[in-house]
Amino acid sequence: MSGISEEQLWQLAVTTLADNWWHDHTVPSRTLYPYQWSWDTGFIAVGLAHVAPARAWHDLRTLFEAQWADGRVPHIVFDAAAMTDPKPGRERYFPGPAFWRSTDVPAAPQRPTSGLVQPPVHALAAWDIYRHSPDSESRERAAAELGWLYPRLVAQQRYLTTHRDIGGSGLACLVHPWESGQDNSPAWDAALAAVPADLTLLEKYQRRDLEVSHRSHRPTDADYARYILIAQRYRDHGYLDDGPGERYPFLVECPGFNSLIIAAELALAEIAPVVGADPQPHRERADRLTDVLVDRLFDPATGMFHARDVYIDQLSPVRYLGGLLPLLLPDLPTAQVKSLLVEAAAPAFGLNEHVSLPLPSYDRTAPDLDPERYWRGPIWINMNWLLWRGLRQHGQPTLATALRGAMIDVVRRSGCYEYFHTTTGAGIGTPEFSWTAALTLDLLAHPEG
């Protein structure tokens, strides 16, 4: 695949997204992820904006039609057409609807969903679709879509900034590693160590991911047992958000997640005038949250942002790519911007004007780096795409161009894989992965210079 042209790469990405249309929405993958995932939907919409904007809006609508009454947007939305496995008596994915039991919760919709959330990239996606509208007619249609979506995006933000301010700092807390989108990142290791790894749960609940993936590429059984216990505890307490307690075995403030909340407020400030709303409250919240983010999660000793374990009120020492995502924020103080650029260029990540591979998800110099295991080292296009936006935001065109080229090149050589080997760039995980295809379209649609 290394010799394909950009035109052929464009067509490969378009075909991947077409093949992943399932029932009434785009799925991340027909094999490993056969339902609708929350932040995947946002990234997919960014790419569809260039080739099928009506589908992009449709995917966002399908997701937000499953929004809970408290404003949360669930990280998985299930649909009846995809729920039945060819083998009778089994669901296609674990944990499925029978585990989450969302339809028993008064605040939840009747359509089965999970009870967790994921990073709120949807406002960014909605604004991208609108501003890429090629003519006045399509922009008018896009404005109508924004009118429907805007109050739902506001409710999502309200949920994250109020219900999820569990630690009382002003930042949103993750109550499960899955909510970060970076499931088994080393950034959560210390906080997860306090959660029992009850392997008997894997006798009660069967992992389905290992049927279609290599075990060496996926989270370990010990991690998975912890994931089940944390989700089970939250579910059994009715998915209610309150002060720290037994319903949350895991409680972490993540700089990447909170940066995307702030970026969403800024996108809503752009959307607000289009729908006749006041942008100022969004800007004020973004300013306030940026101050708290710097105060709570930036460590001057490392020059990076880090995850904070709320229970012990300590920053994790782990350098992971989520700690660079505050570069998305235009009003990040100059001192932090300069520091993050230095850290991005350091050996841990290796960003420079001649970079040949996108940045790894975890410090490449760490002794426990695993170049193949999910978020413990491999390259992910979505995180690099967010960083690329941040570099452009802060006037770094040379670095942005280099990173864009590295992302396009690794997909051109290996295909639209879920993620890529840290040092070789070989494709890992599920092939024909939707957000890789979608974000490749966005990169191709933005030639630098």
Automatic annotation (TrEMBL):
Record GO terms (molecular function): Glc3Man9GlcNAc2 oligosaccharide glucosidase activity
Transmembrane segments: none
Leader sequence residues: none
Superkingdom in the source lineage: Bacteria
GO biological process terms held by the UniProt record: oligosaccharide metabolic process; protein N-linked glycosylation
Pfam families per UniProt: MGH1-like_GH
Record's keyword terms, sorted: Glycosidase, Hydrolase
All copies of domain Mannosylglycerate hydrolase MGH1-like glycoside hydrolase, residue ranges: 33-436
Similarity field: Belongs to the glycosyl hydrolase 63 family.
Full protein name: Mannosylglycerate hydrolase MGH1-like glycoside hydrolase domain-containing protein
Organism: Natronosporangium hydrolyticum
